[in-house]
Design goal:
There is one protein chain. About 50% of the residues lie in helices and about 0% in strands. The chain has helices spanning about 15-35, 55-75, 95-115.
Length: about 140
């Protein structure tokens, strides 16, 4: 996305695109830290407002995704049924990971929509048919 859009906000949200981009990855990072440490760290989207380019946000996201993939590959299947850290919610580890997946799909689809509204076609977008159907709410106009 062009950096000129860093401060663009949707009409119904006071969340600039720089914060939105950060938020997409931050939620995953907070979950992984919580599952590893036993405590979900406080989260704030405001950190996203400090990014000065979408490339920097993408670099942050690449680090989060690399860490996520590494940690997921190491998870013991029995761990998935255990309750996760207390404090933020009472979900099992698998339920929390499902929440992260649904959250990510929702925001990716929103990002695709915004990019297209700006006249930018996403590179290699994931088609809705590739997501679990429960993560895809059809938009009817």
């Amino acid at each position: 996305m062009p950096d000129e859009k860093l401060d663009w906000t949707a009409p119904d949200r006071d969340r600039p695109m720089r914060e939105f981009g950060y938020h997409m990855f931050m939620f995953t990072e907070v979950t992984m830290v919580g599952l590893e440490s036993g405590n979900y760290p406080p989260r704030s989207d405001l950190t996203g407002r400090s990014y000065n380019s979408f490339a920097d946000i993408a670099d942050y996201g690449a680090g989060v995704l690399a860490s996520f993939k590494s940690k997921i590959a190491e998870l013991d299947i029995n761990y998935l049924s255990q309750l996760g850290p207390r404090g933020e919610d009472d979900r099992s580890v698998s339920e929390r990971l499902d929440l992260v997946a649904g959250h990510t799909v929702q925001h990716m689809r929103q990002l695709y929509f915004v990019l297209r509204e700006f006249g930018i076609e996403p590179i290699d977008p994931i088609d809705d048919s590739e997501f679990p159907p429960e993560y895809v709410l059809t938009i009817l106009w």
